[in-house]
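If your schedule permits, I should be very grateful for your opinion on a structural question. Please examine both parts with care and let me know of anything in them that strikes you as inconsistent. The record follows directly beneath this note:
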Amino acid sequence: MNYNSKSLLDVKFSKNVKGYDALEVDETLDDVIEDYAQYEKQSSLDKKTIEKLSAEITELKDKLLQLEIENKRLQNEVDSIPNTPGVNRDNIQYLKRIADLEKALYKKGVDPKKI
């Protein structure tokens, strides 16, 4: 950018017989036009980015809503499991924890079945 609001306000043109020097005024206006072109280009890019991010936010909110619904459904399923001698909620939590630990071991390259 050639100018900011302060520097543009402070521009002084030299005077000649017919007023201001036309060449200086034209050069300054060319610089201002160049600044506007850069501003418009950046503004257009920013608008596209905002639209893209807004669409992504909407998509992620929809996914979050679906996951919350699925989570609630699964939680209701787990809550409806009766506590019987063979199966209870604690056992399910333990099995989930064991599965998570096995996944972590596999990621580290360790086969949990050989431990």
Summary: The chain has a mean pLDDT of 86. The radius of gyration is 33 Å.
